[in-house]
Design goal:
This protein is of the alpha/beta class and 560 residues long. The chain folds into 2 domains: 67-287 and 303-369, Na+/H+ antiporter like fold (Up-down Bundle); 413-554, 3-Layer(aba) Sandwich (Rossmann fold), CATH 3.40.50.620. The protein is built from 23 helices and 6 strands. The protein has helices spanning 3-26, 31-41, 48-55, 61-82, 92-121, 126-137, 142-151, 158-186, 198-214, 216-223, 228-247, 252-261, 269-297, 306-333, 338-348, 352-364, 370-385, 387-394, 397-412, 433-441, 469-492, 506-517, 531-538, and strands spanning 418-423, 447-456, 496-503, 521-523, 543-546, 551-554. Strands 3-2-1-4-5-6 form a 6-stranded mixed sheet, sandwiched between helices. Helix 23 (531-538) links the parallel strand 4 (521-523) and strand 5. Helix 1 packs across helix 2 (31-41), helix 14 (306-333) crosses helix 15 (338-348) and helix 14 (306-333) packs across helix 17. It is elongated. The chain starts with a helix and ends in a 6-residue tail after the last strand. 48% of the residues are buried.
Length: 560
């Protein structure tokens, strides 16, 4: 093995991946589109065998494949870590309904298309071939979708939250089908009994390993940071889980995904975010680009014939038509307005890295041949690249602004005779707020209690994953607590509305939100960021109550 050539290959891969990734962002595309193109550029499609063989000779490819596999382990760990059942809290029925529609229709059409393609491509393994193909065309790229929402500020809207919840459900469905396909494919190899250990292994991970991982949280809190020892424990467990899955012929990606899924969630948000930050540098800059290059080396479109063009057209029709049609129809059945249903369908149509992973596993397992693999990589590229333009068409930036403005108008609410605005600093600690709110709202005429909670959000996010699902999960928990408080106030008092959203600077945004609501009474603790500005903006006509002291600190008719 020539070490000098290996180092040169790494330089080329890093430079081209970052360059094309930045170029993709400049034209409004996710960086992953440019990175996929970089992999194809360095493959035989453009370089051809003479140049490609010199740059990436056969004796170096196992080393590149090893680096790519390590990157894939880390990426699948992030995918498992980003999925959280709290994402669908409060949206369960709608999210599951839309997810099933956006998965079942393309999956069913994919089965028909796979049976049509099978005589030329299935290598004598029809059932796993059909499952792999159908899983690929029905997938949704959760990390890419989350990145698109974050870049467009759509994660602050109800549509954005619903899209994330739907993508999380689709991810679970897709990986489940893929796991079954891999198990069927692996059962035909040596020691088929190992596959039967997959289910007990999953139980051990959830019932045995997860409680052990929870012990990392207090250790992290005592240290105040992610120490090298803590990260070493996580990485050792991750690669042990990946090894166990590979030994059972279930493919290492599922061991990595499972380890991410069993990582603690409640109270571990800071720990998980620091893990993501550490992994980002190595994964995004080096290992994932290597994965794209290795994947691109198997893509050769130069030998594409007329029959291949026809097959590509069918695959695109099934993947795009099935996903858009299934998601849109399911959303409309859930009584989502047409424009929002179309936007939701466009978002769920993105596939990105998720489909590339599925295709790479199918190629490794000998289920897909290189010709069909190449065509489906093009499908992944097209469906990801079309998401932004399609979303601009059905849900342009001005509509996003309207959505955000509507959220602000909902916060203001209708005119009432007496409005009590309660600023909830921590939804986990609301002792006494229900009694104070009922007492302050006691009056004749129309009255209302408005519960307001602003949750700080990070502005810098890791590239390897959206870094968003933990915040959305925390928000779902906060909303559940606020609804419990609202129910306690409604039981013996006035109507209650809940306003809870992300804020880049809660102290700066809170006074504006309070002023827009035009309250008669503000219940706010002196520990809330921005409380002084709220009191100053309240003016002479508003009474301000401090719940921690249980007294009026600014009577109506007096300035602060």
């Amino acid at each position: 093995m020539r070490v000098d050539l290996l180092l040169l290959d790494i330089v080329i891969v890093l430079a081209l991946a970052r360059l094309l990734g930045a170029g993709a962002r400049l034209i409004g595309q996710p960086a992953v589109v440019g990175e996929i193109v970089a992999g194809i550029v360095l493959g035989p499609t453009l370089l051809g065998d003479p140049i490609g063989g010199e740059l990436f000779p056969a004796d170096l490819r196992p080393m590149l494949k090893g680096l790519a596999d390590v990157g894939l382990v880390l990426f699948m760990f992030v995918v498992g870590l980003e999925l959280d059942r709290r994402l669908v809290r409060g949206r369960g029925r709608i999210a599951v309904g839309v997810s099933l529609g956006s998965t079942l229709l393309p999956f069913g059409l994919g089965c028909l298309a796979a049976l049509w393609l099978a005589p030329d491509h299935d290598r004598g393994r029809t059932l796993p071939f059909v499952l792999f193909f159908s899983a690929a065309v029905s997938a949704t790229a959760f990390p890419v979708l989350a990145r698109i929402l974050t870049d467009r500020q759509m994660h602050r809207t109800r549509l954005g939250g619903l899209a994330l919840a739907c993508a999380a459900v689709v991810d679970v469905l897709t990986w489940t089908v893929l796991a079954v396909a891999v198990a069927i494919a692996g059962a035909g190899g040596s020691d088929p009994w190992r596959v039967a250990l997959a289910a007990p292994f999953a139980l051990v991970m959830f019932l045995g390993v997860r409680p052990l991982l929870r012990r990392l949280v207090p250790v992290h809190e005592r240290a105040g940071r992610l120490t090298p020892d803590l990260l070493a424990v996580v990485l050792a467990g991750l690669f042990a889980s990946a090894w166990a899955a590979e030994w059972m012929h279930v493919h290492f990606i599922f061991g990595a995904f499972l380890f991410g899924a069993v990582m603690p969630r409640a109270g571990a948000e800071r720990l998980n975010h620091e893990i993501l930050q550490r992994l980002e540098q190595l994964t995004v800059l080096l290992l994932l680009p290597m994965f794209f290059v290795v994947a691109g080396m198997s893509v050769d479109l130069t030998a594409l014939e007329a029959s291949g063009v026809g097959a590509l057209a069918v695959i695109l029709l099934v993947a795009i038509g099935g996903k858009l049609g299934g998601a849109y129809a399911a959303a409309r059945l859930q009584r989502i307005p047409g424009r929002q249903a179309a936007a939701l369908a466009a978002l769920l149509n993105t596939r990105g890295l998720t489909e590339i992973v599925i295709l790479s596993v199918g190629l490794d397992e000998g289920v897909l041949d290189t010709e069909l693999y190449s065509l489906m990589v093009v499908t992944a590229l097209v469906t990801t690249a079309m998401t932004g333009p399609l979303l601009n068409r059905v849900h342009p930036a001005r509509q996003v602004e309207r959505d955000l403005a509507e959220a602000r108008r909902m916060a203001a609410g209708p005119r009432v005779d007496r409005r009590v605005l309660v600023v909830v600093e921590d939804p986990e600690r609301v002792g006494g707020l229900a009694e104070i709110a009922r007492a302050e709202a006691a009056s004749t005429g129309s009255r209302e209690v408005l519960l307001v909670h602003l949750r700080p959000c990070r502005t810098e996010r890791p590239e390897v994953g959206p870094g968003l699902s933990a915040e959305l999960a925390e928000m779902a928990d906060a909303m559940a607590r606020l609804e419990e408080l609202a129910a306690a106030i409604r039981a013996e008092g006035p109507p209650v509305r809940v306003v809870s959203r992300f804020a880049a600077d809660a102290a700066a945004e809170l006074p504006e939100l309070v002023a827009g609501a035009e309250p008669d009474v503000i219940v706010i603790a002196s520990t809330v960021p921005g409380h002084a500005a709220v009191r100053r903006a309240a003016g002479r006509r508003v009474t301000v109550v401090d719940p921690t002291e249980r007294r009026v600190v600014q009577p109506a008719g007096k300035d602060i």
